[in-house]
Amino acid sequence: MSKRWLYLALPPFLLVAAAFVLVQLFLELDADSIDRKAAERLTLYRQTILGEYQKYRYLPYMIARDPRATSALGLGQPVESANRFLEEMAENSGVELLYVMNAEGTTLAASNWRDELSLVGRNYGFRPYFKAAIGGAEGRFFAIGATSDEPGLFLARPTPVSGDPLGVAVVKVDMGPLEEAWAEGGETVFASDENGVIFLSSQPDWRYRTLTALPEDVRRTIETTRQFAGRELKPVSDRPVQTKQQLVIDGKAFRHNSADVGLLGWTLHFLVPEEETRKSVLPIWAAAITLCLVYAVIVLVLRGRRLRKASALLRRESADLKELNTRLVEEIQERRRVERELLEAQRGLARSNRLAAVGEMSAAVVHELSQPLSALRMFVAGTRKFLEKGDTATASENLDEIDSLQMRMAHLTQELKRFARPGESRIEKIDLRESVRVAEKIVRPRFEETGVALDLDLPDEPLEAETAPLRIEQILVNVLRNGADAAAGEQQGMVRLRTERQGSLVVLLISDNGPGIPEDLRERIFDPFFSTKASSGGMGLGLAISIRLAEDLGGGLSVRANTPKGATFELRLPGLSQDHADTDPKADLTSEAAE
């Protein structure tokens, strides 16, 4: 009898063991799925932070070069015209504060000079961003304002930009909208600095708390710089972090993933509640228990058949069948409930994918419009200066350039739609030399900022082609700017553009003398969001857009090693066909997809 019960108990035991193995397997699969999703979201959130930083990085450099902002340094006292200029610049650029300090750290001009909490006359020489900038470097520091008690990212540059610094130009960027966007996304994400202090968070209660208890020397440094304006900086949990992928905050366990932002030692953290990693456990155990119950019912039915007489057996069979049907109905209802939960999970995943698509298009818009906007600001500043001097002719030329740039940006938005949804563009007969010159105007500020020389080796005769001029300019701007970034670290950085013909193709060769691109990365650099610019904040979209545009125009874009060092990008375009050599065709092939 004991052996018989042992045989009967063996199938449920094997079923429970199989369920246990499946639970462990699905726990690992769920954890891997969450980690992959976290990696994707961290990449997106990192790009939003770096995009916000890159959006305003140029501004302190421009303020440091503008005598209207730095005139107070020469007089050694506040100047109302400088205050008005900074006030106007802050309003137009969208930053929170613009101000200029002398060599001792005293503010001589500020955009909030009219406010009760004006920075004019206040000394901020104790701030690290001032010390870095007065030493000739770029100052970057996130802190709570010592006067306004509002947090922000401080960016500083020495003035003048060359020679011995006489003062410092500072921009304060409000990062609050970034936090609001995180919170609206419904996900748990926060950023911590190099000391482990949380300064940006989708959960407001976590802000200005720490991942671990801060050492005394770190606390003293924070108090000296008044970085967090006397906040208590308590740890988020009394318990230390158990593992790298588990974090306990206010008694709740989270699966933890993190990524280096690549700016000021910041780290991004993405949290998912631990219970979400166990969603597959309940259905598996429910199915196993249901099968065990069905097995038990079957065993009882079979045992009853042997013990009862034939007449009684028929009546019991009917009852057992009813009971079995009831259990089967319950199982079907359970399965339907599980299917509903799976459907809800699929809908949530679809919503996340739509958010990711919106993030990619937003990053592309920021990437493609940043250069024309930078040039537009320079032309606006120059026009004001020429108008002050009464030079209306030059001011009128600048206004023409401004009008051209705004038309270009309007066309750029249409081209970005075509990148997301393939379409056609306006094809016309052009001289490629003019496209090169237009692109050179747009990227010239970047070359001046990096100190890299640009050599345009263009032929005397026209380089005629039937193509889309705006797309050609987009490609050239992206590749020339990458060349400037690559050669920026060289003592004598150089980017050279030359042309040649290869049969029916017109080839533009853009070479730099930077560090070059490793052979194993030459294919990947054309992938979206892949970038070799780890420190400069590149978003990895420029080359992906450029190769797409080049292929749409019937050409191609490739990269190879330069001699003796650096990289050479080869842009191949179809030349003007012989049948159209003596005519000036303009074919409007525009066919936009319906919105």
UniProtKB/TrEMBL annotation:
Domain of life: Bacteria
Listed transmembrane segments: 282-302
Main location: membrane
Domain Histidine kinase: 364-577
Catalysed reactions listed for this entry: ATP + protein L-histidine = ADP + protein N-phospho-L-histidine
The keyword Calcium is annotated on this UniProt entry: no
Keyword annotations: ATP-binding, Cell membrane, Coiled coil, Kinase, Membrane, Nucleotide-binding, Phosphoprotein, Transferase, Transmembrane, Transmembrane helix, Two-component regulatory system
InterPro entries: dCache_1, HATPase_C_sf, HATPase_dom, His_kinase_dom, HisK_dim/P_dom, HisK_dim/P_sf, Sensor-like_sf, Sig_transdc_His_kin-like_C
EC id: 2.7.13.3
Annotated localization: Cell membrane
Annotated stretches, region: Disordered: 572-595
Membrane topology per record: Multi-pass membrane protein
Keyword Methyltransferase attributed: no
Pfam families recorded: dCache_1 (PF02743), HATPase_c (PF02518), HisKA (PF00512)
Biased composition (Basic and acidic residues): 579-589
GO MF annotation: an example: ATP binding
Chain coiled-coil ranges: 307-348
Protein name according to UniProt: histidine kinase
